[in-house]
Amino acid sequence: MSAIFAKRLHAERESKGWSQQQFSNMLGITKAALFGYERNYREPDLAILVRIAELLEVTSDYLIGTSDDRRPVKGITDLQSGNPTTRLPEELRKNLEEYRDFLLMKHGLYEE
Fold first, then answer.
1. For residues 18 and 26, is the Cβ–Cβ distance under 8 A?
2. What's the rounded Cα separation, in Å, for the pair 12 and 76?
3. For residues 32 and 80, what is the distance between their CA atoms, to the nearest angstrom?
4. C-alpha closest to that of 29 among 11, 40, 43, 17
5. Which positions ≥6 away from 48 have C-beta within 8 Å?
6. Going by C-beta distance under 8 Å and a sequence separation of 6 or more, which residues neighbour residue 41?
7. Over the stretch 7-44, which tens digit does the pLDDT of each residue have?
8. Which letter does DSSP use for residue 29 in this model?
């Protein structure tokens, strides 16, 4: 991948307060494999990369350095459906989410 992936992976894992052992267990990989990703001498396969992004609540694009947008992944359905709101600036997406929540509460459909 790149040094940026290694750096971002390490920083995001630490921001969650997870040790390498904890995170590797969550991913179903060895601690040595995770160490290799964080030191930029091993690369995860696509399935592991997707799982890393999901657990860290960031996009895979952010992790690999093709975007500086850390947007949390809300769900695979948004990505599969090509939902255009995923391309909006973060502030506008937040406004849409707040309005959606308002409408759901107003109509008694809000679930936490």
1. yes
2. 20
3. 32
4. 43
5. 27, 29
6. none
7. 999 999 999 999 999 999 999 999 999 999 999 999 99
8. S
The CA distance from 110 to 8, in Å, is: 35
Tokens at residue 9, please?
A: 């992976």
Is 33 among the domain residues? yes
**pTM over the 0.70 mark:** no
Residues ≥6 apart with Cβ < 8 Å to 42: 33, 36
- Number of structural domains, the chain? 1
Range of the domain at 54: 3-64
Report which DSSP code applies to 66.
S
Q: What's the CATH code of the domain at 48?
A: 1.10.260.40
